[in-house]
Amino acid sequence: MELKEKIIGEIKKIYDPEIPVNIYDLGLIYDVKVDDKNNVDVKMTLTTPNCPVAESLPMEVENTVKEVKEVNKVSLELLWDPPWDKSRITEAGKLELNL
């Protein structure tokens, strides 16, 4: 399994506390890049800037990615542009939410 797929698999274990869908299928992860030294760059957002987990969720994502044994370093960037909206939810996420 490719490292990026393994990382995404781990991120899919993290759930938004207000919406019963993992944050990957919710569309909060904008990008996951892995370079040739296994350094990982994650770009993510939150459903709103004043989300109750604005402090803890990015840290949880960073720590989860760091726990993947092949990962060297993790850089996480929290983005607000483009803002998150329901169109970012994956098909799997829409199924879970009955959308």
Short structural description:
With 99 residues, the chain is of the alpha+beta class.
**Strands of the biggest beta sheet: in what spatial order?**
1-2-3
* Secondary structure: helix percent: 25-40%
Proportion of β residues?
15-25%
Which overall shape is indicated by the principal axes computed on the Cα atoms?
globular
Largest sheet: 3 strands, mixed
Helix/strand/pairing class, anyone? alpha+beta
- Series of secondary-structure elements, N-terminal to C-terminal: HEEHEH
In the predicted model, the low-confidence regions spanning at least 5 consecutive residues are none
Mean pLDDT, as a whole number? Answer: 94
What is the tally of beta strands? Answer: 3
Count of helix runs: 3
Distance between the termini: 31 Å
Topology:
Blueprint: H1 3-11, E1 29-34, E2 40-44, H2 56-66, E3 74-78, H3 91-97
Parallel strand pairs: 2-3
Antiparallel strand pairs: 1-2
Protein architecture, described:
The protein is α+β, with helices and mostly antiparallel strands. Helix content is 27%, strand content 16%. It has three helices and three strands, in the order αββαβα. It has a three-stranded mixed sheet with strand order 1-2-3, covered by helices on one side. The longest helix has 11 residues, at 56-66. The mean pLDDT is 94.
